[in-house]
Amino acid sequence: MRLVFAIILLIGVCTAWTTEDYEIFKLNDLIKQDLGPETTFYSWLGLTNGPSSTSSEIKKAYRKLSKVLHPDKLSSVSKKVKKQAEEKFSRLSLVADILSDQSRKRRYDYFYAKGFPRWKGTGYYYSKYRPGLITTIIFIYIFVGTFHYFALKINRKQDYKRIANIRNEIKAQAWGGSQVPPLDGSDRKLTSEASGKTFIVKSTGDVYVDTGNELHLINENEINLNPCFKDTLFFKLPAITYNASLGRFFTPIDLSVSFDKPQETIKEEAEHKKSKKKPKGKKMELANGKVVYSRKK
């Protein structure tokens, strides 16, 4: 549940502010730096009605101010002053564009009423590269899938050690604190006082849980220490999504995982493969005492 909440929160953070929002933040800061901290888009244009100003009022105010601030009116000034005038006029045009667009005007009016956030810092650098929703979901999918894989691996190793320790403890108690089986080769029965379960310890070292009807082997090697692809969310998440949607009408994806070979069998096969040697030829001893084998024809 916490993982799902974290994913939803991350998606919400990544989609909270749009590119247009950052443009509004930046323009708002520049205007306040030039004209004073109390200056707003509306006050600069002389719109006393603020957010209630109509489209015609905004256009009329823009035309009036643009005639005053137009850079062409500055003829005999330095290049620096001319450049500053051009930048100011460009900002005026951007303000008019924002207030003339109903969607962007709503966003500005929202921050105008609620207050502008501290957008610089992590948010500012984030705006340099703003991933889309699809990119964000893919990133989260890869991150969570990788985290889930290593979490599975760690949990299985812990389960493996826990079962191995339990089996060794039961065996040691049944054999009187020793790891050596009884000389008579008999089976030993042990009942746990804590759980009330009965265990049978064979002379071979195998430990079974006696349920009364059948014996269940306690074997840590039945745990697959290396999760396969079907164990991870890389497979399960798309498969569950498919089964919940298209899988209702078509053949659903099988989510079961089969582990045919326990670790013990894999180790035995590996040792058997190592022990296999190519047939040797005739044994020959050299003068220096080194033994070699001739090639077999």
TrEMBL record:
PROSITE patterns reported in the protein's UniProt record: DNAJ_2 (PS50076)
Primary localization: membrane
Protein name as catalogued: J domain-containing protein
Transmembrane annotation, as ranges: 133-152
Domain of life (superkingdom): Eukaryota
Its membrane topology: Single-pass membrane protein
InterPro entries, A to Z: DnaJ_domain, DnaJ_domain_protein, J_dom_sf
Region (Disordered): 267-297
A Pfam family assignment: DnaJ
Keywords assigned: Membrane, Signal, Transmembrane, Transmembrane helix
